[in-house]
Write a structure and sequence with these properties.
About 45% of the residues lie in helices and about 0% in strands. The protein is mainly alpha-helical.
Length: about 150
């Protein structure tokens, strides 16, 4: 099971990110490669408390599905709506210079996986409280989902 706590899996994600270019074509969705890099950064920064992110109000069934979503042996589906704060067409960080945005993402991955931790995880907007194992699995799956979106 792939997770960012495994150095080999983390290195695999970094290698796959390295092949994405500003003009890499998407396989699905509406984001371009630059927007995806900012989205992946925003998602990490939000759960680390470095970017404001509100928890949705109302009925939330995602916590009940958390284990299935994180540990079932299939790839995440396309088209799951995202939070406006990390949607690059709404309130997410707009792309600036691709290489700088990529450095921001790599720095966020470094901070997310660093031990000892220099932050406390915020509740995930969908899954709420998560264990260390859950966070490292989510971090891998979310990043993997979006690098696959751009063929890497």
């Amino acid at each position: 099971m792939k997770t960012l706590s495994d150095p080999a899996c983390r290195q695999e994600i970094l290698a796959r990110l390295a092949v994405i270019a500003p003009d890499s074509p998407r396989r699905w969705g509406t984001m371009n490669a630059s927007q995806m890099i900012c989205h992946a950064s925003d998602a990490l920064l939000g759960v680390m408390g470095d970017k404001p992110m509100e928890l949705p109000r109302g009925l939330n069934l995602w916590p009940l599905m958390k284990s299935f979503v994180l540990y079932a042996p299939f790839q995440w589906p396309h088209g799951v709506p995202t939070r406006p704060e990390i949607d690059q067409q709404l309130g997410g960080t707009p792309p600036s210079q691709f290489e700088n945005d990529m450095r921001t993402l790599i720095a966020a991955l470094d901070k997310f996986t660093a031990q000892p931790r220099t932050f406390k995880f915020r509740p995930h907007p969908m899954f709420r409280q998560m264990s260390e194992k859950d966070w490292m699995r989510w971090g891998y799956l979310h990043t993997d989902h979006h690098v696959r979106q751009f063929g890497a």
